[in-house]
Write a structure and sequence with these properties.
globular; OB fold (Dihydrolipoamide Acetyltransferase, E2P); 27% helix
């Protein structure tokens, strides 16, 4: 009987450790990450806490409320990541972009979303700005800006949702000047401003 209780207690402790790891308040994969010289943001007052359920590619993911399992599809506002095989023809740096976002936002990561003007795109995905928290510093970063500055996506305005367009354009200038990520591909040269 005593050994059964000990085994049950050990299982409960292990289960609680797994749950606490999954409920992380910050970005687990971001430990020691340099954020591509991105400046931290103050978390917007209207940002809503969500949890990552799945990353589809470099600009879309499934999110759920932290204590719920019902997910919805979300599209990052203000960027266009190169496509991956499956939805359309694969574009240069598409797989790398998707891989980077999956590593930065593993399942269970807590993020904060902010609505701009539109609620959903024509495909039924929620349109949101997403903020992530650095585990080491507690600072918040605009995910779209990180993706653009790292060369994992390009800035693309989707009017009327243009709250951070200027910041994203500056981020793209940074990435093209540094020949980062997708900007090493000949396929994207025509998008670089002279």
């Amino acid at each position: 009987m005593r050994s059964s209780l000990s085994a049950l207690l050990a299982a409960l402790i292990a289960f609680s450790l797994v749950l606490s790891a999954c409920a992380s308040e910050s970005t687990p994969a971001a430990e020691g990450f340099d954020w591509f010289d991105t400046q931290p943001w103050e978390l917007p007052g209207d940002a809503v806490k969500m949890r990552v359920d799945k990353v589809h590619d470099g600009d879309s993911l499934n999110l759920t409320e932290p204590d719920d399992d019902w997910y919805e599809q979300y599209r990052l506002i203000g960027i266009q990541a190169p496509e991956i095989q499956g939805y359309r023809d694969e574009e240069c740096y598409g797989p790398e972009s998707a891989k980077f976002l999956k590593e930065l936002l593993p399942v269970g990561t807590i993020v904060w979303v902010q609505q701009d003007i539109s609620d959903k795109d024509p495909n039924g995905r929620y349109l949101r700005h997403v903020f992530v928290q650095d585990e080491d510093t507690g600072d918040y970063f605009l995910l779209s800006e990180v993706m653009v500055r790292g060369g994992y996506a390009r800035a693309r305005s989707y009017k009327p949702d243009d709250l951070y367009d200027d910041v994203l354009k500056e981020g793209q200038d940074y990435a093209t000047e540094n020949h980062s990520g997708m900007w090493t591909c000949d396929e994207w040269e025509h998008l670089i401003d002279d």
